[in-house]
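Sample A.
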Amino acid sequence: MNTPAYVSLTDLGKRFGVGPRDVGLWLKALGLRQPDGRPTPRAVEEGFVLERLLEHGGSWWLWHEKKTSEVLAGMAEQTWPKIVKFEDFTVIRGT
């Protein structure tokens, strides 16, 4: 059986040449992460994320590599204004 690959935000960031914090902010802008960094119910329901329980409490989330990468790539292709402001960063698109 071929199971989908789930990866960390760091691994996703490497695909886009950014750090995990940037990927986390993008996922928040797409409605897949909550302000506190936890996945949204939508992310869980649509299979974007897999929760791993830590040995001493808490959780760590892994993201479906293909599905999440496609959504992030699609975000870049959308027809957005040249300047898009998010919570902690601004995207300035070239012409």
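Sample B, a different protein:
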Amino acid sequence: MRARTRKREFGSALIGIATVALMTGCASSGNQPGTQAAPTQPAATSPSTTSPSTTTQASTLPEFVSNRYGFTVRVPQGWSTYDAEAPWGGKEITGPGSLQFAALADPSGIRTLMAAATTVPAGTQLADWQAAMVRGTPKLCDQSPTVETTTLGGEPALAWTVKCSDGFDGIQLAALHGDRGYVFYLASATANDDAQDRQIFEGIRQSFRFTS
């Protein structure tokens, strides 16, 4: 099954920041198409907090595979998905419907999770990559000055929150794997419950696995 038609309009700059397309109960390993201005000082790091995973057992959820970016995640029931169809340049986090991002979207359209990766220079450090993602976030979004230490697919990762003037908040994450830098984030309408957003984000993050 194919995810719903991609939207070209930004709709919300942050929802665009986050589209790892989730499939409506049909996502499987065979499915594919296939934050505040950048801080001038390195962001302070705070301990991560582990939020509860989604109530449905992860093993019972459909699976989405990104062949372009080499990862798989479990998809919440009813969400739609699509894989990226074009390589991401690694400079800007773009809006919903971008061909450069894999994405998962809930049925209501008020939450979207996106992911992309690009090759990074040898010797790139995680803090450097996270700072690059801060710079690449739309200027209408205020980003938290502190970051949480966490993981993505077993790799060290840094996560931080964003609040945007277009009515969307988000959780963003930066990680390195091999010679690639990854960005992974959830955009959610400001009116949504923050605890529920965190629960959804953590459930998907915890299911993330690298396949290459």
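Observation for Sample B: Residues 126 and 176 are 6 Å apart (CA to CA).
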